[in-house]
Amino acid sequence: MPEVTVRYVNSTLTSHTAKMLAAALQTIVAEALNVPGDEHGEITKNDIVVRFVAHNPFDIGVMNFEIDIVTVDIPARRKNLQERTEAIANKVRALTKDKDDGPTGTHGYVWIILTQSGFKTF
Asked: Between 48 and 100, where is the model more confident?
């Protein structure tokens, strides 16, 4: 279950845009990280958790729009990780670029963090 954390400067994101991005990120991330036929890599948009966290006024050295994606490390993802990262970043840029209600002055990043993990619902 990939977890997406979107950190942002409060003045750069409206609630309307946040709702739109949350839904879009589920699809974008699922498409980019899906590994069909792999027990740990096959995912759908319903497997993606998206959280939004506003930057604190005391934060320093931050960009105004940061997307961290934590997901399980499997060889198929590691093999073309940069391509997957760029695909997500390009789609997010297209969604937010020149939109009246989009993040203003948007510059940021996408960072996919692959990790060994265990997961079980209860």
From this structure: 48
